[in-house]
Structures are given as structure tokens and as C-alpha cells.
């Protein structure tokens, strides 16, 4: 294993941990709003780390660019979807959970 | 590295399955809609890992299409499909 | 910011379009290059596509004001804060006692409507502990994961950074129907 391999492996595993956190939040958090918090943020960071881990292994600049493009798209999609779901949930009268 | 890619891809797949429990259980329509979000990110990550592991560049394009589709379907779904009245208060 | 047709074809009015047209053509060419991972033969289709995309984008969105230094400052800020946001929510999800105290707050927006505002709404959802839930006239409803933290000052910093990126200034907030805490 080269140094780059080690670096990439660390990033990939860290990404996996964030995905796990996202799923855990999805299962444990009490209402749809808090679950959205968990999914949007943890999964996007997880994907970001996985993509970073793959990008350092990429064979060409164009491949690296494509990976970043995919990340940007998912980021944009995730942010707007979570806003749409949250605003629709408020409209529908789903009350936020309070401690 | 090959083993790590496959192991991580499998791990993410298990994550997806675990997340499906929330989608099936609800309790509100909004919770089910979280599936779009979950599938969007996780499936893209799995596809990219497989593309690297098996050295199939085309899978990256599939991931790209998934990323685009996830956005479009979710927006369409939230705007059009979610119209039945929601009365449940979400707390458990 | 008017359409080309409103102004007639004097040289002064065409130059800004020419400049943003060139910039966008470069951006689209870059995207094409990434999508095709640098395949040389693809430019046969790529060059016309880039030109069409540039023309269409100029017709649909004539000008976007932005500042390069603002973008250069925003990118590291965003990457750092969104990473922090992920760590924050992951920590709360893993913690056995689930340390969250969620609530809704209303934030009076000072950004001008349009692209800057939409950008702000999307950014807020990726930053630590905040989720933009509803956008009304001049008021952004934000769902907060932990109301014990001072979210308002964080939102102000974000707004400032977005305003700098789009080279606009912030107007004074009108409270109106937007009370900060509910």
C-alpha cells in the first residue's frame, strides 16, 4: 500500500462512518425535521469524503473533475429536496417535535 | 484497496436497507419521502465505489444520471404526489 | 440588466454580454470536458453544444453579478462549516442520550430576492444545526436542531458571505410579520 492508498482508505472509511451516522439519525431522531437534518448533512459529508477518497486515486484530471461535478449535483439536490420536504411538511401541519 | 471498495459498498448497501425501515414505517408521508434523499446520496456513493473497484468508468456516468434523477424525481414527487391530507402529529 | 433588445446594439451595451458569454462558454466547455473525461472525438458534438448552451443561458439569465474574491472567501467557509455540520449531527446521532432540543425560528432576510436568496436558503440546510423550512416574503423559517445555540449570529455571517459573493449589499431588515422566536 502506498501513502496515497492509506490516505484514500482513511477518507473512505471516514465517509462510511458519516453514512452510518445519517442512517442512525434517520432511525433515532424523533420527527421528520430532525431526520432531515441527519440525512442531509451527514450523508452529504459522507459522500464528500468518499468522493475525496476516490478522487485522490483518480487516473486523470477529467475523472477527478467528474467526481467533483457529481458531488456538487448531489449537494444541490440534497439541499433543495430537504427544503421542499420541510416546507411541505409545515404546510401539511406536521408539528416539529419539542423536548 | 479492492477489498475495501467492495466492503464499503456492501456496508453502504446495508445502510440503505436499514434506512428502508424508516421509509416503510413512516409514520408520516414526509418520512417516506426521505427515501429519495437517502437513495440519492447512498446509491451514488455505491456506484462510484464499484466504478473504481471494477475499473468500469461507465458506472460513474450512471452515478451522474442517478444524481440528476434523484433531484428531478424528488422535486416532482414533493410538488405533485404529496397531496393527501396529513393529520398525524409526528411524535413517538 | 435589461435584455439586449431593450438597449439596441451599441458597442457599450454588447461588451458586458460578450464578457459573461466568454466566461460561461469556458465554464460549459469545462463541464463538457469533465462529462466526456477528455475524449478528443467528442468535441465534434461538444463545441456546438457549448455554443448553444452559452446562447441559451445568456437569453434566460442575462447577467449574474458575482465577485471572484467573494467566491474565493465563500468556498473554504462553506466547506469548513458543512463539514462541521456533518460532525455535529453525527455526534448527536451517535450519542446515547440524543442531545437535541429542536425548534423553529424566523429569520428576517436582508438579501435581495432572486438568486442570492435561493442560494442562501440552500446553503442554510447544509450548515451546522439549521434547516431552511419555509421562505415567505422577507422571512426565512429555519428549523434548528439545538435551540440552546446562538443560531441567529451564524445565519447573519452566512448572509454576509452570500451577499459578498453576489456583490450585493444587505438592506435593513424589516421585522413586519417576522418575529424572531416562536
Automatic annotation (TrEMBL), chain A:
InterPro entries (UniProt xref): PhaG_MnhG_YufB
Coiled coil (UniProt feature): none
Keyword flag Transport: no
This protein's UniProt keywords: Membrane, Transmembrane, Transmembrane helix
Membrane-crossing residue ranges in chain numbering: 6-30, 68-90
UniProt GO MF annotations: sodium:proton antiporter activity
Pfam families given in the database record: PhaG_MnhG_YufB
Stated name of the protein: Multicomponent Na+:H+ antiporter subunit G
Organism: Neptunomonas qingdaonensis
Automatic annotation (TrEMBL), chain B:
Tree of life domain: Bacteria
Pfam families with a match to the protein in the record: MrpF_PhaF
Subcellular location: Cell membrane
Gene Ontology CC annotation, any one: plasma membrane
Alphabetized UniProt keyword annotations: Cell membrane, Membrane, Transmembrane, Transmembrane helix, Transport
Protein's UniProt keywords contain Transport: yes
Signal peptide: none
Spans through the membrane: 29-50, 62-82
A GO molecular-function descriptor: sodium:proton antiporter activity
Protein's membrane topology: Multi-pass membrane protein
PANTHER family named among the record's database cross-references: NA(+)/H(+) ANTIPORTER SUBUNIT F1, NA(+)_H(+) ANTIPORTER SUBUNIT F
Family: Belongs to the CPA3 antiporters (TC 2.A.63) subunit F family.
Protein's name according to its UniProt entry: Multicomponent Na+:H+ antiporter subunit F
Automatic annotation (TrEMBL), chain C:
Pfam families found in the cross-reference section: MNHE (PF01899)
Gene Ontology CC, one term: plasma membrane
InterPro entries for the chain: Cation_antiport_E
Keywords: Cell membrane, Membrane, Transmembrane, Transmembrane helix
GO molecular function: monoatomic cation transmembrane transporter activity
Main location: membrane
Bilayer topology: Multi-pass membrane protein
Transmembrane stretches, start-end: 21-44, 50-75
Subcellular location: Cell membrane
Record-stated family: Belongs to the CPA3 antiporters (TC 2.A.63) subunit E family.
Name of the protein in question: Multicomponent Na+:H+ antiporter subunit E
Amino acid at each position: 500500500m502506498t501513502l496515497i492508498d492509506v490516505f484514500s482508505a482513511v477518507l473512505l472509511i471516514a465517509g462510511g462512518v458519516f453514512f452510518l451516522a445519517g442512517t442512525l439519525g434517520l432511525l433515532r431522531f424523533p420527527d421528520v425535521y430532525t431526520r432531515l437534518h441527519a440525512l442531509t448533512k451527514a450523508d452529504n459529508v459522507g459522500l464528500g469524503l468518499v468522493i475525496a477518497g476516490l478522487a485522490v486515486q483518480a487516473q486523470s484530471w477529467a475523472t477527478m473533475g467528474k467526481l467533483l461535478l457529481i458531488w456538487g449535483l448531489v449537494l444541490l439536490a440534497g439541499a433543495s429536496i430537504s427544503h421542499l420536504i420541510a416546507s411541505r411538511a409545515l404546510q401539511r401541519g406536521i408539528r416539529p417535535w419539542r423536548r | 484497496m479492492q477489498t475495501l471498495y467492495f466492503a464499503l459498498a456492501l456496508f453502504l448497501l446495508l445502510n440503505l436497507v436499514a434506512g428502508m425501515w424508516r421509509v416503510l414505517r413512516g409514520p408520516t408521508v414526509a418520512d417516506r419521502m426521505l427515501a429519495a434523499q437517502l437513495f440519492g446520496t447512498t446509491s451514488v456513493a455505491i456506484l462510484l465505489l464499484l466504478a473504481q473497484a471494477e475499473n468500469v468508468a461507465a458506472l460513474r456516468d450512471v452515478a451522474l444520471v442517478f444524481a440528476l434523477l434523484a433531484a428531478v424525481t424528488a422535486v416532482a414527487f414533493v410538488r405533485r404526489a404529496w397531496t393527501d391530507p396529513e393529520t398525524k402529529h409526528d411524535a413517538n | 440588466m435589461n435584455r439586449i433588445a431593450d438597449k439596441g446594439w451599441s458597442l457599450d451595451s454588447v461588451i458586458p454580454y460578450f464578457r459573461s458569454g466568454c466566461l460561461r462558454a469556458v465554464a460549459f466547455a469545462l463541464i463538457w470536458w469533465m462529462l466526456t473525461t477528455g475524449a478528443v472525438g467528442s468535441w465534434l458534438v461538444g463545441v456546438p453544444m457549448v455554443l448553444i448552451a452559452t446562447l441559451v443561458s445568456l437569453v434566460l439569465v442575462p447577467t449574474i453579478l458575482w465577485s471572484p474574491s467573494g467566491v474565493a472567501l465563500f468556498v473554504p467557509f462553506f466547506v469548513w462549516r458543512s463539514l462541521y455540520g456533518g460532525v455535529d449531527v453525527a455526534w448527536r446521532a451517535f450519542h446515547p442520550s440524543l442531545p437535541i432540543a429542536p425548534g423553529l425560528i424566523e429569520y428576517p432576510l436582508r438579501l435581495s430576492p432572486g438568486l442570492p436568496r435561493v442560494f442562501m436558503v440552500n446553503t442554510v440546510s447544509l450548515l451546522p444545526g439549521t434547516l431552511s423550512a419555509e421562505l415567505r416574503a422577507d422571512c426565512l423559517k429555519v428549523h434548528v436542531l439545538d435551540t440552546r445555540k446562538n443560531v441567529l449570529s451564524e445565519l447573519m455571517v452566512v448572509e454576509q458571505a452570500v451577499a459578498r459573493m453576489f456583490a450585493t449589499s444587505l438592506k435593513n431588515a424589516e421585522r413586519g410579520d417576522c418575529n424572531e422566536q416562536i
